[in-house]
Amino acid sequence: MSKIPEDAAERRAIAPVICYPVETLPAPDLGLYRAARAGARKVAEWRVPPREASDFSVPAGQFFRISSIEGPQVGDLNLWNADDMTERFYSGKTRALHGTHLTEGHRLWSSFPALRPMATVVTDSLAWYGVDAFGGRVHDVIGTRCDPYTGNLLSGTQYHHCCHSNLTRAVADARGMTLEDAEPHVHDVLNVFMCTGFTRDTGQYFMKASPVRPGDHLEFFAEIDLLGALSACPGGDCGDRHSSDAAACHALLVEVFAPEDGALQGWVPPARNGYDRSHGR
Ligand SMILES: [Zn+2]
């Protein structure tokens, strides 16, 4: 046990500062997006079966909506630049910029060196949830994705329908890859509809039954051409356990909506990051 210094209280009383103030982040024009969405028509849909994943694609300038349709269900979302899969969703940087959970107006940022918005959250039917008495919030970028390796580490299991494996199969099918080639493309997710936080006492990652109900949805504007994959987590509503077939699981729906021509006047896809990449040499 470490020795408590005399000025411990003083040191603890120092107020925190926000690591990345967002005032200078390029802000999305939500008014423009929502006006464009009002006149948009549905052009595609994918049903994600329980304990499986589906790939989907969304051209830049269109919207995609993830909906609960049959019962409370959490979804694990991966996104890639459709033309260059090395550019993919960067949950850690998204968390550093926007916080542990995402809602309307937040953006899903891509990996280095592009570091640009891939998608913007336009509508969140669970925005009302806010923060509960346990510190739980919805749609986190703190969990990684359930995976068979951690299951094996903790319980010695060989379970094949964790989100990691579901996403791996979806990428393999979408791009005609072997599982070995597809797996490295799978990355840390946006946990759609998942209700999570950290315990105050031990700082451990917790989950609790999602407040999502059929009809609830999270809708995004695609800032660049996207390949997506969504897994209907074997944890179901994640109120009890995951990484097994024990929880009740339900399908999720992905729908794509195309705005009318000219509805996005003035919008252009975001440019790749402007850092010159000389790294001091
Ligand atoms: Zn999962």
UniProtKB/TrEMBL annotation:
Domain DUF1989: 47-227
Pfam families tied to this protein: DUF1989
Protein name: DUF1989 domain-containing protein
